[in-house]
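Sequence in, structure out.
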Amino acid sequence: MTLRTAVLTRLDYLDSLARDADEPSKAVLADTVIARLTAAWRELLAAHEPDHRGRCRACASRWALRRAECSVWRTAHRHLVTDPARQSVTRGGSVGRHQLRSA
């Protein structure tokens, strides 16, 4: 099993537990997994810290003259900070602006 496959399989497993498990199992899941996920996010974000010019050291080309926003930080913001109800509108998801107004 490749590293990628192992990670995606684990994410699928955690999704299924969060969706289908009974309440006591979800509580155990929260107690054991949330700290690991926040640690993983912190480690990933540390690898993408901006340099003194505000450019991501992992993503930006050293030849790039303009400040490029890091996709990892944008993704973290979208999933950890932004209201999930508004995500489909801001990302152009399956619910469009005109559908929200008429609902």
